[in-house]
Design a protein that fits this description.
Blueprint: E1 4-8, H1 15-26, E2 29-32, H2 34-47, H3 54-63, E3 66-71, E4 74-79, H4 91-101, H5 104-116, E5 123-127, H6 130-134, E6 140-145, H7 148-159, H8 167-183, E7 196-199, H9 205-217
Helix pairs in contact: 1-9, 2-4, 3-5, 4-8, 7-8
């Protein structure tokens, strides 16, 4: 059976970059699980669906067909013939994705889609409930964290190339996202009992990758 390296953590903890580089080092496929929630949020906003209506969002999600494909070592997707990339990283998506991700029907859609990816090959997959809900049987589990200030600095640097936003606003947005993610009823963000916690605050992301590769490869 294809193997899974599962990496969880809050927003801007470095898990996406770490997971992508770890996948490259292992020759596995990289999966950004959050992009599926962002994709559904993007499509809901594009269609004019009321984000605050669980029924409307759930109905839309159930009718969406993800078109998965491999590209540059990652599992990517299209929706209705469009591969969203930059569309998924706007502040509008950041502000709405947590709400969409609380709906059980949306989570079920994404979890089942993620599990199906194992048929494509061995995976390094990052998210917020990968170690606890999606792949609790993963061979390797890691939980990345960092101080709120460092996470805000990283996210601000990422967003500044696309839009003008104050770092304080990013810090506030992350705090709200953390609250929603950790208190939602279904599959909240938490540390799996058998996951190794890595504080990345004072580490470069390459150092984190090297640490994980040593843990896996010996």
């Amino acid at each position: 059976m294809n193997k899974v390296v599962a990496i969880d953590g809050p927003s801007a903890s470095g898990k996406s970059t770490v997971a992508r580089k770890t996948a490259s080092g292992l020759g596995y496929l990289f999966v950004d699980s959050g992009s599926l929630y962002r994709g559904l949020t993007w499509k809901a906003l594009e269609k004019g669906v009321d984000i605050d209506s669980e029924d409307e969002v759930s109905e839309m999600a159930e009718n969406i067909v993800f078109e998965f494909f491999e590209k540059l070592g990652a599992v990517c997707f299209g929706i209705e013939g469009v591969e969203p990339v930059e569309e998924l990283r706007t502040e509008e998506i950041n502000s709405n994705v947590s709400r969409v991700a609380t709906y059980p029907a949306v989570r079920e859609k994404v979890v089942n889609s993620l599990r199906s990816m194992r048929d494509l090959g061995s995976l390094v997959i990052e998210g917020r409930d990968i170690t606890t809900a999606v792949f609790p049987d993963a061979e390797y589990k890691f939980y990345l964290d960092a101080s709120p200030e460092e996470r805000a600095r990283r996210r601000h640097a990422e967003m500044a190339v696309r839009e003008d936003i104050a770092e304080e606003a990013v810090l506030d947005s992350l705090a709200k996202r953390d609250m929603i993610d950790s208190t939602r009823e279904k599959d909240p963000l938490r540390v799996a009992e058998d996951a190794e916690i890595i504080d990345t605050t004072d580490m470069t992301l390459d150092e984190v990758v090297d640490y994980i590769l040593v843990k896996i490869q010996g």
